[in-house]
Amino acid sequence: MNISILNVEDVNKIVPIFDEYRVYFDQQSNVDAAYNFLYNNLSNNDAVIFVAEDDEGVIGFLQLYSMLSSMKMSEMLIINDLYLTDAARGKHIGEQLMHQAFKYGKDSGYETIYLETEKSNIGGNRLYTKLGMQVDDEHNYYSKEL
């Protein structure tokens, strides 16, 4: 198993698992839109994507975005997506992807890394706590469809 940063030239190899990820979370399959979304994000340096691959191909990925903080007057790193195929689960691949994200953030000068997950994500929540991430009980996060 190998983990590497996805280059824009290799975006095709992640499209199937990215589409699978979206379908897993009740979105409509759309391979063409997935390709365009990933290609544009990588081309514009709006995202960094780590991919985990074995002999069969991509078995997991983690996608990072950055965001500005006025309070910290710095950039923060956001783990927006972490997904593993069924066959990859339970093999500590998610943990390895997270460690790569932490290293990337530290090496790139970020002070903080964030993520958001559903409370029902028992495995993910257990992993994030194990890796030293803290639950933010002091803030409310709101959203509104536009």
Task: Briefly characterize the structure.
With 146 residues, the chain is an alpha+beta fold. The chain has helices at 15-24, 31-43, 93-107, 122-130, and strands at 2-5, 48-54, 57-69, 74-84, 113-115.
Labels describing this entry:
146 residues; Aminopeptidase; 4 helices; globular
Number of strands: 5
Strand count, sense and barrel status of the largest sheet are: 5 strands, mixed
Average pLDDT taken over every residue: 93
Domain count: 1
CATH class: Alpha Beta
CATH fold type: Aminopeptidase
The N- and C-terminal alpha carbons lie at a distance of 41 Å
Shape: globular
Number of helices: 4
SS class: alpha+beta
Beta-strand residue fraction:
25-35%
How would you describe this structure to a colleague?
32% of the residues lie in helices and 26% in strands. The chain has helices spanning 15-24, 31-43, 93-107, 122-130; strands at 2-5, 48-54, 57-69, 74-84, 113-115. The protein has a 5-stranded mixed sheet. A hairpin with a 2-residue loop joins strand 2 and strand 3. It is globular and about 40 Å long.
Map the helices and strands.
Blueprint: E1 2-5, H1 15-24, H2 31-43, E2 48-54, E3 57-69, E4 74-84, H3 93-107, E5 113-115, H4 122-130
Parallel strand pairs: 4-5
Antiparallel strand pairs: 1-2, 2-3, 3-4
Helix pairs in contact: 1-2
